[in-house]
Amino acid sequence: MESKKQFFLECYKLGIIKFGQFTLKSGIESPFYVDLRPLASDPKILKKLGHYLLEMLSIEQFDLICGVPYAALPMATAMSLESEIPLIIKRKEAKAYGTKKLIEGIYAKGQNCLIVEDVITSGTSLLETIPEIENEGLIATDIVVVLDREQGGRQLLEGKGYRVHTLFTISEAVAILKEAGMLGEVEVLRIKDFLAGKEVKFEAKKRKSYEAKLAKTEHPSAKKLLEAAIEKKTNLIASADVITTKELLELADQVGPHIAALKTHIDIINDFDFDKTILPLRDLAGKHNFLLMEDRKFADIGSTQELQYSYGVYKISSWADLITTQVIGGYHSLDFFLNSGVIAILSMSSQGTLTEGGYFEEATKVALDHPSVIGGVSQKPISEDLLLFTPGVNLADSGDGKGQQYNTPEHAFKNLHSDFIIVGRGIYKSDNAEQAALRYKVAGWEAYLQSL
Ligand code: S5P
Q: Which atom of ligand 1 is nearest to 347's Cα?
C-alpha cells in the first residue's frame, strides 16, 4: 500500500481542508477549515481510510464499533466491513416515538466498543457522546480519530483515561502540504500561531462595492435601493420612530435628500389615515428618491403574515418597497411578501437578545435560500450575497438605557461590511434633523469608501 503521506494528499484533493479565513461556531477566526465528509463520496478512499484506521490498534480487543454521527458513520462502517466487527449506530437525538432508543443495533452490556470520530477539536462533543454509550452498559476505552485539530481535545480525553489514536494531526497535514508545495510560508506560520493560541492576523477582507452588488442582484427593490444609494452617495436609512403623521411627513421632507430609505413603524402613528399618511409619504419618497421600509418585523405563520401584510388599515403591501421580518416562522413563512424586498432579522442590537447561539446561523440559511430576501438586519457580518442593514448606530451615545446598544458608522462599515446604517434617535431627536441626517450621510459614506 502507498505511504500515509500519499494517502493524505489523495484525501486532500477531495477538498477536506480549506485554508483562508473562517469564522468558527465559537466566533473565533481560524486560518483553516476541516470537513471530512467528502471522504465518504470516494469509495476507494473510504475503504483505504477504514484500513488505515484499523491499523492503528490491535482490533481483536473490541466487540463493537460505533461512529459519532454523522461524519464518522461511513468511516465506522468501512472499519466494520473490513474487520467484521459489528457496527452499532448512535442516534443524534433519541427517537420521539417507538423504542426511544439512543443506540441502534445488536449489543450486550459489558461489550467493549471502539469509538470512531472524524475530527477532534476541543473534545467536548466526544465527551458528550461517550457517556451516552457507557450509559447503555458498554465499555469505551479507545477512540480513533481521522484528524486532530490539536486544540486540546486529545489531552482532555486522555486526562479522563481514554486512549486516543489519531491518523493525522493538523501539523502533519500542514507539513505534508508545505513539502508538496501546496502551502506557502505565510500560511504555515499563521496556522502555527493559531495552534499556539496566538492572535493571528489576516489580510483585511475586501468588501463588495454597491456597483458590484447592483450588477449581481435580480430583485427590483434591491436594485432600486442600490441605485438610490449610488446616485445620492448615501447609505443612510433614517428610522422615523415618531408618533404623528405631521412629524412623519416633516421628517421625511427634511431628511429626504440625504437618505436611501426611510424606515417606518407605521403602527405607532397615532392619527394614521391611509390617505393622509401614506399618500403624501409616497409623494415625498418620489420627490426625494428614497425607498419606504416598513419595519414590521413579522413573526407569525405564513398565512397570518400574508393577512398582516396586505389587510387591515395599513395595507403594507401596497406601499412598502422593503419590509422587515423575523425568520422564526421558518422558510415558508416568508413566501407571501411578493411586492416588497424582504429584509430578514438575523441578529438584534438589544442587550441579551435571543438571536445569539445557533439562531443566527439557521436564520441566515433561510434568508440565503429564499428568493424574496434581499438582505438581513444584523450586528455581525453576514454573507455578501445579502445586503447588510445595521441599526444601533449613533455618533453621540453608547446606549439608550433601555437595552439598545450603539456603534459608530466606522464600526458598521469597517468591521461588519455593512451596506446600510439605520439611525433613529440620532436624527429625529436632534435639534436639526436635516443637519443631523447630513452628518450621518457623510460619516456613513466616508466609512463605506474607507472600507472598500
Ligand atoms: O436589532 C435591531 C433591529 C432593528 S430594525 N435593532 C434596532 O434598533 N432596530 C430598529 O432600528 C428599532 O426598531 C428602531 O426603529 C431603530 C433604531 O433606532 P435608534 O433610535 O436606536 O437609532
A: 1
Lowest-pLDDT range, 89-98, 156-165, 173-182?
A: 89-98
pLDDT tens-digit readout, 168-207: 999 999 999 999 889 888 899 999 999 998 888 887 777 8
Query: Is pTM beyond 0.70 here?
Result: no
* Nearest by Cα to 295 from 256, 330, 321: 321
Q: Compute, in angstroms, the gap from residue 391 CA to the centroid of ligand 1.
A: 5
CATH tag for 4-195 (out of 2.130.10.10, 3.40.50.2020, 2.60.120.10, 3.40.50.300): 3.40.50.2020
Q: What whole-number distance in Å separates Cα of residue 222 and Cα of residue 321?
A: 9
The residue count for the chain: 452
Query: Which residues are registered as beta bridge partners of 120?
Result: 148
Residue 297 annotated in active site: yes
Mean of all residue pLDDT scores within the chain: 94
Residue 186's pLDDT is 87
- CATH architecture of the region 210-451: Alpha-Beta Barrel (3.20)
In this structure, the residue with its CA closest to atom 7 of ligand 1 is 391
The rounded Å distance from CA 258 to ligand 1 centre is 19
Which pLDDT score, from 0 to 100, does residue 61 have? 96
Q: Please tell me the number of Cα atoms within 13 Å of 429 on its side-chain side.
A: 10
Measure 176 CA to ligand 1 centroid, in angstroms.
50
- Percent of the chain residues topping a pLDDT of 70: 97
Q: Which atom of ligand 1 is nearest to the CA of 406?
A: 21
Query: Which residue's alpha carbon is nearest to atom 12 within ligand 1?
Result: 391
Map out the domains of the chain as residue ranges.
Answer: 4-195, 210-451
Q: Which atom of ligand 1 is nearest to the CA of 297?
A: 5
Alpha-helical runs (H) found in 344-387: 359-369
- Residue that wins the pLDDT comparison between 259 and 198: 259
Distance separating alpha carbons of residues 83 and 64, to the nearest angstrom: 10
pLDDT tens by residue, 321-378:
999 999 999 999 999 999 999 999 999 999 999 998 789 989 999 999 999 999 999 9
Cα(101)–Cα(83) distance, integer angstroms: 26
Catalytic-role residue among 223, 297, 315, 380: 297
Q: What is the 3-state secondary structure (H, E, C) of 19-30?
A: EEEEECCCCCEE
Q: What is the DSSP pairing of strand 322-325 with strand 291-298?
A: parallel
Spell out which residues line ligand 1, taking CB within 6 angstroms: 239, 241, 265, 295, 324, 348-349, 377, 391-392, 394, 400, 404, 422-426
Report how far ligand 1's centroid is from the alpha carbon of 236 (Å): 13
